[in-house]
Design a protein that fits this description.
Elements: H1 9-18, H2 23-29, E1 34-35, H3 42-45, H4 49-58, E2 60-69, E3 74-84, E4 89-95, H5 114-131, E5 138-141, H6 146-152, E6 156-160, H7 162-174, E7 188-192, H8 194-202, H9 209-229, H10 235-243, E8 246-248, H11 252-264, E9 270-275, E10 281-286, E11 289-294, H12 296-308
Parallel strand pairs: 1-8, 2-5, 4-9
Antiparallel strand pairs: 2-3, 3-4, 5-8, 6-7, 10-11
Keywords: Membrane, Transmembrane, Transmembrane helix
Family: Belongs to the LytR/CpsA/Psr (LCP) family.
Protein name: LytR family transcriptional regulator
């Protein structure tokens, strides 16, 4: 079975941001983050200049979040993090990895393969050019540390439906054999440890990639809720674990500024969007490969309303 490690970015970012209250400790630990600068230019990253001006006017910062499937060297998860300072909101847009992008006839024309063909720079370029955005930076988080982070928080509460149970247990039995876990036996709201939450977030056979990204967001929200009620004595260990799995084009000062903005947002709820939106996509197969065809005009319109709107 193909290995699918999920990257729940915001959960880890919020762990680090919450720990800003221990600024001296955080400052020392943030240097563990791998810094990978990129050359920023309109041509290199295909930055939309009109949207760049709009972002400055609306006080919005867009950053690409990437999670990599190391087996096929492609982005397993793609999200756009939008920091809306004017409205004090954190906005998160998930882009489904099977979305069709025309690279070339002899290539795999899925948006997740942008990373395969050119790493973070190509990923930013493809998303900027296809969604008319002004992204200049990326954050990549290795999900290996998620199990430890959730366990340090004492687990996360997830509402599991009946159909998901067998897939969670199947994931637990086939993977993570060196970690402690218990079979899930009943549906409903229950506390999952790191290994169990990871198995939950990996489910994709039961339905579609749409519901898989929804499961990822469920875990993110649960991590966030746990952070809001956690004891600050846990922060040093949480930060030490989280920062070890981060790579970014932001330097230490820029990352601290970004995380401080997240921490100071008045609206603590994460606003969410998934692309393509309902009614704008269809399944297709080209040369035996599955793709998600999507209406570019409608999705760009909805994305921009989401990022730059007041709600």
């Amino acid at each position: 079975m193909k290995k699918n490690k999920k990257i729940l970015f915001i959960g880890i970012l919020l762990i680090i941001a919450t720990a800003m209250s221990l600024s001296y400790y955080f400052y020392k630990k943030i240097n563990k983050v791998k810094y990978s600068p990129i050359q920023v230019s309109e041509d290199n990253l295909k930055i939309n200049e009109k949207i760049e001006r709009k972002s400055e006017e609306k006080k919005v910062t867009n950053i690409l979040l990437l999670g990599i499937d190391k087996e096929e060297l492609a982005s397993d998860t793609i999200m756009v993090l939008s920091i809306d300072e004017k409205n004090d909101k954190i906005k998160l847009t998930s882009i489904l990895r099977d979305s069709y992008i025309n690279f070339r006839e002899d290539k795999v024309n899925k948006i997740n393969y942008a990373y395969h063909y050119g790493g973070p720079v190509e990923s930013i370029k493809v998303i900027n050019s296809n969604y008319n955005l002004d992204i200049k930076d990326f954050i990549k988080i290795d999900f290996t540390g998620l199990v430890q982070i959730i366990d340090l928080l004492g687990g996360v509460e997830i509402n599991i439906n009946k159909e998901e149970i067998q897939y969670i247990n199947s994931g637990l039995s086939k993977r993570d054999k060196n970690h402690k876990h218990k079979p899930v036996t009943t549906p409903g709201l229950q506390l999952l440890n790191g290994t169990e939450a990871l198995a939950y977030s990996r489910i994709r056979s039961i339905d579609s990639d749409f519901n898989r990204t929804n499961r990822q967001r469920n875990v993110i929200s649960s991590i966030y809720n746990k952070l809001k009620t956690s004891n600050s004595i846990q922060y040093p260990q949480l930060v030490s674990t989280a920062t070890s799995y981060v790579e970014t084009s932001l330097n230490s000062n820029e990352l601290m500024i970004l995380l401080n903005k997240i921490l100071l947002m008045k609206d603590k709820n994460i606003k969410e969007l998934r692309l393509p939106i309902d009614g704008t996509w269809q399944d297709s197969t080209i040369n035996g490969v599955y793709y998600l065809q999507w209406d570019k005009e409608q999705n760009i319109k909805r994305l921009h309303e989401f990022i730059y709107g007041d709600s």
